[in-house]
Amino acid sequence: LNRLETFISTVRGKSMKKWVESIAKIIRRKKQAHANGISHNITFESPPPPIEWHISRQLETFDLMTLHPIEIARQLTLLESDLYRAVQPSELVGSVWTKEDKEMNSPNLLKMIRHTTNLTLWFEKCIVEMENFEERVAVLSRII
Question: InterPro entries in the record, alphabetically (predicted)?
Answer without folding.
Answer: Ras-like_GEF (IPR008937), Ras_GEF_dom_sf (IPR023578), RASGEF_cat_dom (IPR001895), RASGEF_cat_dom_sf (IPR036964)
